[in-house]
Amino acid sequence: MEYVYFHELGHSLGLGHAATPTCSACDTTSAMAVGIGGSSLCFDAADNSLIGWSTPTTVIDISALTQATQLTLPSQLSGPQNFAMVTGAAAGKLFISFRRNIAPNDVPFNQQVSRPDEFR
Question: What is the pTM of this model?
Answer without folding.
Answer: 0.73
